[in-house]
Design brief:
388 residues; alpha/beta; five-stranded mixed beta sheet; 19 helices; 14 strands
Length: 388
């Protein structure tokens, strides 16, 4: 019977938002669509990008901006990617060390739950450290082309902190973040679930903000495939999207929670204890070593068209962040190429879903609303002042 299934090799990073891909493989949704979905757990996004680009994978759980960056890489047209499906929204958190949390608390003029307050406090801490000749604070993020990087930068810049001058941003794979925080190699980090929770329980960090505090509907991961593979395997791609969308809908049903935990906690999948995964899926996370918890119903959004259907506004918002931080050049051609990565037409060809979308697609905590038809105006309104 398995010999009749079409093989599809896919890579993933052990994160909660790989759930749809993992469940599609492990609970039979892919097989029901005639696919033998073979998953490979990887440790870094660079591995995922390279193996997909080289054709070792047919599909991958991928950072959305990394897929866009691949499409803009003129030197590797053979590695150009598209995203026929998103893998959910939100799920990140900003974690700081106990020492930095204490400094922010001593400096803040208000509630530390407000990112405007914490950003202003961070600016003061940085200025005080500079005055006494201390080394810059070090923050970890998972990849330069990632929403984690852009969320950190956005939060800092809104407070007048220059993330390229006033702090050090370093790249670390998600599973290594907690250890780096525990060893004092990081003062803070932004990482996806469940690794923020691990940084609290294993490194005594403090979750300062959920990603949803910074962006109401932040684009995160996508199901990525090479453009050439998509063109050559249109029927297989439709079946893969349908299998993953069905798996996402299954994940969202509370009655399936115990089975979902068993699937995700497996050693070859996330290899994280069930209760940590449960807390993330419930949107109720331990935010401090003393066991203090915080809940948010939109911490991670998986099911429904608003989180699965590729949204052109999300692709263009991510492209705007790349331009802002001088990762890519701004041009009408590049903007069009970035938007073309998000293939809602292919999602719609696989299945039809209806849902409500956020007004501007992103919902940042501060700053101008995003207008995908006026990226220049949006960027002009985003001005960061240096720390005094």
């Amino acid at each position: 019977m398995n010999g009749d299934l079409t093989p599809v090799r896919a890579g993933f990073i052990p994160l909660i938002d790989a759930a749809a891909l993992v469940v599609a493989a492990d609970r039979g949704f892919a097989a029901e669509e005639g696919l033998r979905l073979e998953l490979s757990r990887e440790v870094s996004w660079a591995n995922i990008r390279d193996r997909l680009g080289l054709g070792q994978f047919d599909a991958a759980h991928m950072l959305a901006p990394l897929a866009i960056a691949a499409a803009l890489d003129r030197d590797r047209p053979d590695a150009a990617m598209i995203a026929p499906m998103a893998m959910g929204l939100n799920g990140n958190a900003v974690v700081v060390s106990a020492a930095l949390h204490a400094d922010l608390g001593d400096t803040a003029s208000g509630d530390l739950s407000d990112p405007k307050i914490t950003g202003a406090a961070l600016a003061k801490v940085i200025a005080a450290r500079r005055k006494r000749g201390a080394e810059p604070l070090v923050f970890g993020m998972v990849f330069p082309f990632s929403s984690h990087n852009y969320q950190l930068r956005y939060w800092m810049a809104e407070a007048g902190v220059d993330p390229d001058r006033d702090v050090r941003l370093v790249v670390l794979p998600p599973p290594y973040m907690a250890d780096a925080l525990a060893k004092g190699q990081l003062d803070g980090l932004c990482v996806g679930a469940p690794w923020a929770s691990v940084a609290v329980t294993e490194a005594r960090g403090r979750i300062l903000h959920f990603g949803v505090d910074l962006m109401a509907r932040c684009p995160e991961k996508v199901l990525a495939v090479r453009s050439r593979w998509a063109a050559d395997n249109a029927r297989t791609l439709r079946r893969l999207v349908r299998a993953c969308a069905r798996a996402a809908a299954w994940c969202a049903v509370k009655e399936h929670r115990e089975e979902l935990l068993e699937i995700l906690a497996a050693p070859e999948r996330l290899s994280i204890d069930r209760e940590t995964i449960r807390a993330v899926l419930d949107g109720r996370l331990v935010v401090a070593p003393d066991g203090t918890t915080r809940a948010h119903g939109q911490f991670f959004i998986l099911d429904g068209a608003a989180s699965l259907r590729p949204d052109r506004r999300h692709a263009l918002w991510l492209y705007a962040q790349m331009v802002r931080w001088e990762q890519v050049e701004r041009s009408a051609t590049a903007a069009a190429a970035a938007a073309a990565v998000y293939r809602a037409d292919l999602f719609d060809a696989a299945l039809t879903m209806q849902d409500r979308f956020a007004e501007d697609g992103v919902g940042a905590f501060s700053g101008p609303a995003f207008d995908p038809n006026d990226i220049g105006g949006y960027l002009a309104a985003l001005k960061a002042e240096p720390v005094a």
